[in-house]
Amino acid sequence: MIKISSVSYLNSLPFIYGLKESDLYSEIELFLDPPSLCADKLIKDEIDIGLVPVVTLHSLKNYKILSEYCIGSEGVVDTVCVFSNVPINQVKTILLDPQSRTSVELLKILLKNHWGINPVLYTEQIDSELENSNTAALVIGDDAFPLHNKFEFVYDLSLEWSTMTGMPFVFAVWVTNKNLNPNFIQKFNQALDFGVRNINKSLSISNVSHEIFVKDPLKYLNSRISYNFDENKKKAMNFFLSQVS
């Protein structure tokens, strides 16, 4: 069995659907995990393939990006945001989503090079209420959906990155640190391709939390998430990684 860890968020639903609908499904063991756990499992050699945050690449000695598909965006993404009740230049502290790694590094780059501010950052489980008016919160994934109407200021980090650089952004890529059979890799990519081409059908395996928090999941998957890991995204990813301290 080939062990595969996929991100458990709504944005990965087409990938999960494609794998479950493929002949490959009988050959794999599929785990659905938060991004940070996907990364940890691959680093610890507990899985063979992971949909991992791109900053994970800095922690792997030998790896191969397996697919021409990724979790990316070309502007607004809706699910990687800083939520605040004051403008960003008045923020003194930002709470960081513990599931986030790539997004934290993206935030640090934007704070330094885009906004020119230096708030205190620390990791904490985010509550929907912020006690201090000068405290903001970085929230990622499905947890971000219900917060958009609860805060006066919402800073979409993908949009801010695009504004600053003119580039798309890549949040996660499919990676292995094993020598996998080329035939398996081909079938794996065919499964992902099938899922991305059948986004509407992939919603059939959506869970209850998605239905509660997302007004229009189809719009989100089709217009907020960009799945093709094309040359522009590869260049953007490499540029981002070069900026990570």
Explain this structure.
This protein is α/β, with parallel strands linked by helices and 245 residues long. The chain folds into two domains: 2-73 and 168-243, D-Maltodextrin-Binding Protein, domain 2, CATH 3.40.190.10; 80-165, Periplasmic binding protein-like II (D-Maltodextrin-Binding Protein, domain 2), CATH 3.40.190.10. The chain has nine helices and eleven strands. The strands form two sheets. The chain has a six-stranded mixed sheet with strand order 2-1-3-10-4-11, with helices on both faces. Strands 7-6-8-5-9 form a five-stranded mixed sheet. Helix 1 (13-21) crosses helix 5 (182-196) and helix 3 (102-115) packs across helix 4. The chain starts with a strand and ends with a helix. The mean pLDDT is 91.
Summarize the structure.
By secondary structure, the chain is an alpha/beta fold. It contains nine helices and eleven strands.
CATH homology superfamily name of the largest domain: Periplasmic binding protein-like II
Provide the spatial order of strands within the biggest beta sheet. 2-1-3-10-4-11
Q: Which CATH architecture of the largest domain?
A: 3-Layer(aba) Sandwich
Q: What is the CATH first-level class name of the largest domain?
A: Alpha Beta
